[in-house]
Design goal:
This protein is mostly beta strands and 145 residues long. 7% of the residues lie in helices and 37% in strands. It has one domain (29-142): 3-layer Sandwich (Rieske Iron-sulfur Protein), CATH 2.102.10. It is built from one helix and 13 strands. The chain starts with a strand and ends with a strand.
Length: 145
């Protein structure tokens, strides 16, 4: 059976392609139904462990694509929603921090105005078969109960 190199040994003896695929799938965490994310509508909140701390995150739909970010303004590390799960401004064009008015681009999380210091922490999402999944990373882990 053909094997790929792992990060430990680099000689190709550790994982089969099927094992690699299984590991990749394991890093996809089901979040919600695709129908739960409506263009410019309410976000779907979820809890994650970011850099060792339990944090809130949120998923949105913008221009037909799903996006997710840590619910933490870059100006002051506090949650951004002005009402539960509400992040879009009245135009549906910007994500808005309710406390100090920082605005962010919904598709990239980049700061677009106000007192923000850099962009939002993006969380990779995928959408398939009517389900939205979020993807773990070295600094983003599921909350363990």
């Amino acid at each position: 059976m053909w094997r790929t190199a792992c990060v430990t040994c680099t000689i190709g003896c550790c994982k089969t392609l099927e094992e690699e695929k299984t590991m990749a799938m394991a890093s996809m965490i089901p979040l919600c139904s695709s129908a739960d994310l409506v263009q410019g509508g309410r976000a779907v909140p979820f809890d994650i462990v970011y850099a060792g701390q339990t944090c809130r995150a949120f998923a949105i739909r913008y221009q037909g694509q799903v996006h997710a970010y840590l619910n933490r303004c870059t100006h002051v590390a506090m949650e951004m929603d002005y009402q539960p799960d509400r992040f879009f401004d009245d135009t549906g064009r910007w994500l808005l921090c309710a406390t100090h008015g920082a605005t962010y681009q919904p598709d990239t999380g980049a700061c677009s105005g106000g007192p923000c210091r850099g962009g939002l922490v993006k969380i990779d999402l995928s959408e398939q078969d009517g389900v939205v999944h979020w993807h773990t990373a070295y600094n983003l882990k599921p909350l363990e109960f």
